[in-house]
């Protein structure tokens, strides 16, 4: 009997785990109405597949629960992360007072940063499928330079959040941020 229960537990755990968003990129193409096909990264979530077109010319590294993208400027980057929710929550925009979500997003400010300041909250700068996002922007000093950080949070499922971090020197942050946010509009279900 214990073996059967243990086997069923393992089966359900594997099934539950199999339905988690995996950011290990596979590659495909997306054909638009006009012009050549666009190379697309494909992510899986159980049987579901999602296509994503990263910003042009950015290089990727990673997979699983974290995928990073880098520009030609070594201080500018974007990272997509899948973070498990600790307990059942409502959607980001109603789960808690904005100050709680702002505090939660501040955990992504690098350790060693000084003079960190909250700049603004942007409601839904991009959707991920039918899921809205909420963005929190910070500035901070690190190694004598001022940087900006955008933390965008999407309640992707009942179990997971998709988080997009974008960081760059304050001088070119808005351009890097716009490129990253624009790329998120490419996120689409693949059939």
Mass-distribution shape: globular
Task: Estimate the strand proportion.
Answer: 35-45%
Structural class: alpha+beta
| H/E element sequence | HEEEEEEHHEEEEHE
Compute the number of strand runs: 11
Strand numbers in spatial order across the main sheet: 4-5-6-10-9-8-7
Computed CA radius of gyration, to the nearest angstrom = 18 Å
Number of helices: 4
Distance between the termini: 41 Å
Helix content: 10-25%
Low-confidence runs: 1-18, 88-94
Largest sheet: 7 strands, antiparallel
Question: On the 0-100 scale, what is the average pLDDT?
Answer: 86
How would you describe what is shown here?
A hairpin with a 2-residue loop joins β2 (38-45) and β3 (48-52). The protein has 191 residues and is an alpha+beta fold. The strands form two sheets. It has a seven-stranded antiparallel beta sheet, covered by helices on one side. A four-stranded antiparallel beta sheet has the order 1-2-3-11, with no helix packed on it. Helices cover 21% and strands 45% of the residues. It has helices spanning 2-18, 92-95, 98-105, 173-184; strands at residues 21-30, 38-45, 48-52, 59-63, 66-70, 77-84, 114-123, 133-142, 145-155, 160-169, 188-190. It contains four helices and eleven strands; from the N terminus they run αββββββααββββαβ. It is globular, with a radius of gyration of 18 Å.
